[in-house]
Amino acid sequence: MTDRPIKWSYMDHWRAQGPAGPYDQWQSKLAMKRFLQQVAAVGFDAIDTFDFRIWQIFEQYGSVANYQEFVQEQGLERIVNTFHGVYYSPDRYAPEVPATHATILDDFRRTMDMWSGIQLDNIIVMPGSRFFDEAGVSDDGLKHAADVWGQVGEITQQYGVNLTCHHEFYAGIRTRDQIDRFYSYADPQYVKFFVDTAQHCIADVDPVDVYEKHHERVTGFHFKDTRHTDVNDDYRMFPDAEVSAKTTEKWFYEMGTDEGLVDFEAMMRSVRDHGYTGWISVEHDKADKLGGDYAESTAIARWYAKNVLDGIYTEEVAR
């Protein structure tokens, strides 16, 4: 880090409209170059990505290090975090099911080796499977999940990377009680917390309050907004409530949106008061729904970060 206590990274959700229809930045090197230059132009410092992109990285750039060099050539510092997106299934890959733990551990040994060409801060996981019943994960299941993520965290820290947990509103570890119990069982040395402001609000969890409770193990944030709390049990929609829910067509909005539920000013004051320094990631998940536009949302969010949130953080630092 430089003398700036907070820097802003952009999670690489993106779609644009081309002559042949919508495309994303991974379509070609030219599309990626334009995406990265747009993100840099509005003032972001770095990017995050998904680790399932590794195969496209190998195909298009030859190595992770080559891809990061390409990112840097467009004016960004580096790749900060990667999100470990896998299909959870109780018969082969589920943190709450001990019989699947060997598969999970083998997966992370391979994954960390593939990303070892660069220095990441965090690898982000969904700590619980997608439970569609009201009970969610049992207490024993929470203990099993805490145990395997502790073992995974030992693996990732061998590479200098934090294992950090991100709680989707449709996942089994979603309520405040489940979150608190999970972290009471998880080793704080190896299992960290990644706060997603919108996901917590949708699950009726106050993101500021849950951060206050667990701030000592927080290693990053997704800052995005929502206008909706899930009051219809949409989290039970299969296979993914973010796209399957019939009552809410668009869950996520950029910071600064009208009628947003996240109190970002309070969030930033809490971040500041607890002495957090490092990266905050902006995420625009499915921003193009209902006529939205990724480029517009990204510019609005960056304006809000620069003109509202950075000022809140630095006003106390300057005293």
UniProtKB/TrEMBL annotation:
InterPro entries attached to this UniProt entry: IolE/XylAMocC-like, Xyl_isomerase-like_sf, Xyl_isomerase-like_TIM-brl
Pfam families from the UniProt entry: AP_endonuc_2
Signal peptide annotation: none
Key words of the record: Carbohydrate metabolism, Isomerase
Domain Xylose isomerase-like TIM barrel: 36-290
SUPFAM superfamilies: Xylose isomerase-like
Gene Ontology MF term list: isomerase activity
This protein's name: Sugar phosphate isomerase/epimerase family protein
